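User: Sequence in, structure out. Go.
Assistant: Echoing your sequence, followed by the structure tokens.
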Amino acid sequence: MFDSLIKYLEINIELIKLDIKEMVAKMIMDVIKLVVVGFLSSMALIFLSIALGLWLGEMTGSMIQGLGIVGSLYLLSAVVFVVARKKMRVVFERVVSKYIPDNQWLINELTQEHEKPEH
């Protein structure tokens, strides 16, 4: 009986190790995807910004004005972001809370799952 319990615990430990390895591998792949997509998106934004600045420069007759307009748009976006960040945080928390369970709820679910009825 004791040997069966030891074997059961060893198997559970191995399963937990495999689960952890799988979670770590998934997290690493998610980070790599985020970095690659972030880098490529940043490069696209840079080149599109330059193209817009050059186009606006041709439209206004001055490259400095065209690039200044694009720079001003980014500056304005940054100011709007700083001013609205608290409201954006509240909205973000509401959206995220719909998809991520409350910690206490999760704790209750996990403990109820493993509780055995007492007779």
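User: And one key feature?
Assistant: The chain has one domain: 2-114.
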